[in-house]
């Protein structure tokens, strides 16, 4: 009996030890694959992006006011159009201004596009953080408004015009997206930074928010969906989606890409517009992109080549142009660098 017992125990113990080693090896391999999965799944052109910048005379910093929150850039009437926040006295006097350019280098500031709302309205203290959409012959200017001089009251609205130069008429159903009344909810403190995309038959309004007790470094991005561009918008149950502040989002390939803005240099990409993974990096404070429409230019796989971004000089913010070279499979390493 003892001989039989010994002959059975040794193979059994050896088999258990072998199985344990195999399991450990498999776990390590799975962990390693998962660690680098984001890089390999993300579109190659979003990994290893390089950027150069150039000062724009019309947007140089001035001690009188800040220029920031550049919108996405659109093309209309053979000109490029951009909207931005003009901020004097640390949000004591703010409005959305518009500028145009024939070549993207020489810009003309055309003045105020949208000022403060009527006294007592939700946006009585001003309009900031614009984003513009061309749809069915009209233009929709999404913006952030607030009241009582209190930025914690920020919510989202839109205005409509027949031309990017205006005049802009506020949508009668404003605000189109409001803060949660639940003080424990992630989106109860404020709403800002509209980025509005049309995909899969729906309007996707990406926005930032946080709790009232949280700081800007704790801001996250969520999304709300609607059948019509003016809403009603319903916040998605998967919110929040990723950390971001002064972010930018755009349609890229069959999904959505995003710059996280001031709190992170990450470029993110999502195949479904909800579950985002890290791609490359492009440090920025706040960015307005020229991204050709994915429907009219389906062969554009770069997402964007240039845009305007915020920079600070002598403690005052201005806008400058940046140009990008997209990453490629040849010049990209698995870690997301060059």
In short:
With 338 residues, the chain is mostly beta strands. It is built from one helix and 22 strands.
What are its keywords?
12% helix; 2 domains; single chain; 338 residues; Tachylectin-2, Chain A; 5-stranded antiparallel β-sheet; disordered N terminus; mainly beta; 1 helix; disordered C terminus
Explain what this protein looks like in three dimensions:
The chain has 338 residues and is mainly beta. It has 2 domains: 1-41; 42-325, Glycosyl hydrolase domain, family 43 (Tachylectin-2, Chain A), CATH 2.115.10. The chain contains 1 helix and 22 strands. The protein has one helix at residues 2-41, and strands at residues 50-55, 66-68, 74-76, 79-88, 93-101, 107-114, 126-135, 138-147, 150-161, 169-170, 190-199, 202-210, 220-226, 234-235, 242-243, 248-252, 255-259, 266-270, 277-281, 287-290, 306-313, 316-325. The radius of gyration is 24 Å and the shape is globular. It starts with a helix and ends in a 13-residue tail after the last strand. Residues 1-14, 20-40 and 329-338 have low confidence and may be disordered.
């Amino acid at each position: 009996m003892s001989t039989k017992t010994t002959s059975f125990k040794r193979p059994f113990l050896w088999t258990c030890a072998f199985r344990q080693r195999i399991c450990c090896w498999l776990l390590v391999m799975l962990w390693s694959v998962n660690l680098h999965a984001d890089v390999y799944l993300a579109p190659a052109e979003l990994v290893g992006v390089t950027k150069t910048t150039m000062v724009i005379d019309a947007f140089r910093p001035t001690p009188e006011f800040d220029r920031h929150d550049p919108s996405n850039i659109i093309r209309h009437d053979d000109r490029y159009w951009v909207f931005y926040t003009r901020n004097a006295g640390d949000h004591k006097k703010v409005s959305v201004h518009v500028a145009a350019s024939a070549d993207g280098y020489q810009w003309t500031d055309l003045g105020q596009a949208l000022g403060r709302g009527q006294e007592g309205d939700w946006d009585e203290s001003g309009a900031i953080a614009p984003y513009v959409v061309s749809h069915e012959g009209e233009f929709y200017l999404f913006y952030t408004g607030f009241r009582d001089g209190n930025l914690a009251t920020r919510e989202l609205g839109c205005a409509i015009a027949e031309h990017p130069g205006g005049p802009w008429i506020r949508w009668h159903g404003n605000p189109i997206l409001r803060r949660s009344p639940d003080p424990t909810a992630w989106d109860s403190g404020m709403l800002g930074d509209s980025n509005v995309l049309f995909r899969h038959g729906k309007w996707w309004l990406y926005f930032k928010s946080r709790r009232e007790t949280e700081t800007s470094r704790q801001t996250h991005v969520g999304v709300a969906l609607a059948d019509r561009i003016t809403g009603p918008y319903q916040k998605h149950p998967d919110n929040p989606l990723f950390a971001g502040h002064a972010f930018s989002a755009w349609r890229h390939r069959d999904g959505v890409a995003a710059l996280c803005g001031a709190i992170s240099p990450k470029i993110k990409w999502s195949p479904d517009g909800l579950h985002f993974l890290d791609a490359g990096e492009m440090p920025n404070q706040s960015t307005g992109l020229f991204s050709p429409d994915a429907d009219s230019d389906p062969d554009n796989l770069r997402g964007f080549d240039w845009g305007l971004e915020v920079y600070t000089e002598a403690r005052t913010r201005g806008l400058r142009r940046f140009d990008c070279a997209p990453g490629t499979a040849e010049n990209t390493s698995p870690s997301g660098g060059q």
